[in-house]
Design a protein that fits this description.
Radius of gyration: 29 Å
Number of helices: 5
CATH superfamily of the largest domain: G protein-activated inward rectifier potassium channel 1
Strand content: 25-35%
Structural class: alpha+beta
Helix content: 25-40%
CATH architecture of the largest domain: Sandwich
Number of strands: 16
Length: 310
């Protein structure tokens, strides 16, 4: 069996020597792709934010109907029964656009209808495009709603806090939803620039955790790396870690019973953002008559070490 080396690449590249974060705090890779690349409209439309997606749908809807409205206008208003010229180009275009919308959506109020070969041809293509567009948007909306996603909150900052007789690296997570996530696992990698002979390369260390897996996830989970003699953080001061320009890369995965699939989450903390001399405040409390109450908005709350424990 091949022995695992202390420093592994983990697919992130040992030759990256810049001091910027490899993984952004939101889990996206800090990599700019240039040259030949593959663009998939489907994956882009499924992956973008809801606001941007709805804006694209709205712009496409308006753009398509304005285009067909212009075609109807070119054929002449006399080819559309129930539509009289207004004397204004923009008003006539607006009226033919509204007629296109009725055709595009197969709504058809009955007050306007095509009257002539070319208006019938345009209306036929307008209806065809409308049917295809609605089928496409319906599929995209379903894919967006059905896409598994771990709705897990991560504390904005990681901390260096007391642990037993020494110190530890800590951050915490909590499930934003009421659904069950079971068999949750966490992996934390520490990466920094290291001198290896005459070269400076990026080293990677898997940090040992106090607990790297929980069977159930009903409350918050504080993920703790004890800073022992085997830790790359051992005997490192706050100034030392800041000079190292290191980064803690986090991978969390678990089984989501709602989707009946594995979900995962990536995030990152820089050594520059570490908070020293504090500990996390308690997030959940026993409330008589209610049971255990978990306050999600307290995930980032810390207190000085000198303060009495809650």
């Amino acid at each position: 069996m091949k022995k695992k080396k202390e420093n592994d690449d983990f697919g992130l590249g040992s030759k990256i020597t810049e001091s910027h974060q490899i993984v952004n705090p939101d889990g996206t890779f800090n990599v700019v792709r240039e040259g030949k690349h593959y663009w998939s409209p489907y994956h882009s439309l499924v992956g973008i934010s809801w606001s941007f997606f709805l804006l694209i749908v709205l712009c496409a809807f308006i753009g398509i109907n304005v285009f067909f409205g212009f075609l109807f206008l070119l054929t002449g208003l006399e080819t559309i029964s129930g539509l009289e010229p207004s004397g204004s180009f923009f008003e006539d275009l607006a009226n033919t656009t509204f007629f296109s919308i009725q055709t595009f959506t197969t709504l058809g109020y009955g007050t306007m209808s095509p009257n002539g070969f070319w208006s019938h041809m345009i209306a036929s293509f307008d209806s065809l495009i409308g049917l295809m567009a609605f089928a496409l948007v319906t599929g995209l909306i379903f894919a967006r709603f059905a896409k598994p996603k771990a709705q897990i909150l991560v504390s904005k900052n990681a901390i260096i806090a007391p642990y037993q007789d020494g110190e530890s690296f800590q951050f915490r997570i909590v499930n934003k939803r009421k659904n069950k996530i079971v068999d949750l696992e966490a992996i934390v990698l520490f990466t920094c620039l290291e001198e290896r002979g005459a070269e400076i390369k990026r080293g990677y260390h898997t940090l040992s955790l106090e607990r790297d897996k929980v069977a159930l996830f009903p409350l918050n989970w504080t993920i703790v790396h004890p800073i022992t003699e085997n830790s790359p953080l051992y005997k490192k001061s706050e100034a030392d870690l800041r000079r190292m320009n290191g980064e803690f890369i986090v991978k969390i995965k678990g089984y989501d019973e709602t989707y009946a699939q594995l979900v995962h989450l990536n995030c990152s903390f820089s050594t520059q953002s570490l908070i020293w001399g504090v500990r996390f405040k308690k997030m959940y409390f026993d409330v008589p008559g209610e049971g255990v109450v978990l306050h999600l908005d307290k995930i980032d709350d810390t207190e000085p070490i000198s303060a009495p424990k809650a």
